[in-house]
Amino acid sequence: MKPEFIDPKTNYRYYTLEQLPRLTRILAFKDMGLSLEQISEWVNRDLSIDQLRKMLYSKQEELSEQIEQSTLQLRNIEARLLQIEQEGKPSPYEVILKNVAPYSIVSIREIIPTIHDMVSYRCRMFNDLYLWLTKNRIQVNQELVLYHAREFVDHNFDIETAVIIDHDYYSDDITAESKNISINNLPREAVVASLIHSGSFMEVGYALSELFKWITLHGFSPIGPTRELHLFGRENNHDDYNSIVVELQIPVLKNK
Asked: Where's the HTH merR-type domain (predicted)?
């Protein structure tokens, strides 16, 4: 806003009493973090109350997202420092905290009796999934496995093999021919502890135990099923199980 007078010696800006209410509003918007462009739009266009409310709600959402991201970054730094101090040497895995967007999945959930049955069950479950998806001409994305146990078990594994799908590419009237197949939405997770495992499929269990160890060490609790995202492609089509890349995610909540 143009001042009424600028002192040529000090460059101090002088405003009239009539200008002060408008100047006060401009400074208030500046303190809220609004851009000069947004402030100028409000000043010059004389926005309505509804338009002003919409602009402030938008800024509120933007700041909330920034705070959430900064909080996650601070927790990652604190966790990494604590890990170095308590263990003396870095873990083979880098664990980070992040948020995860919601997505839709087609899945089959079963109880696998023993660890020896794991390969054959998973192979059949994924095969049934892809047959159903192909038959219904549904476009598929990444595949994953959900582990529903919240603690260590050595039998009766509650496993869900799944494939992420685009909600826009299938009709809600499509029904599964098998009662085992279901279409669900995985919710947005505000915070997940995540690591990347690269190597043998047989070592995924070790990576998972390291992730649970990190969660306990840093004062978090699991609040949802573990997600094993297959970054290497389809499990049944992979030739070398000594060379896979997966991301492990566990939704967590900070202990009070």
From this structure: 1-45
What is the C-alpha end-to-end distance of the chain, expressed in Å?
Answer: 48
Contact 159, 220 (CB under 8 A): no
One-letter amino acid at 140 equals: V
For 229, the 3-state DSSP assignment is strand
86 or 70, which is more confident? 70
Domain that holds residue 246: 96-254
pLDDT in tens, 3-57: 565 657 666 665 566 656 666 767 777 777 777 777 776 666 666 778 778 878 8
> Count of domains in the chain?
1
Q: How does 160-172 read in b/e, with b if 16+ C-beta sit within 10 Å?
A: bbbbbbeeeebee
- Does residue 111 fall inside a structural domain? yes
Sign of CA dihedral 98, 102, 104, 106: positive
The tokens 């202990």 sit on which residue? 255
SS3 content of the chain, % helix, strand, coil (to 5): 40, 30, 30
Q: What does the angle CA 233 – CA 187 – CA 211 come to, to the nearest 5 degrees?
A: 60
Residue 160 lies in a domain: yes
Is 244 within the bounds of a domain?
A: yes
In a domain, 171, yes or no: yes
Read off the CATH number of the domain in which 188 is found: 3.20.80.10
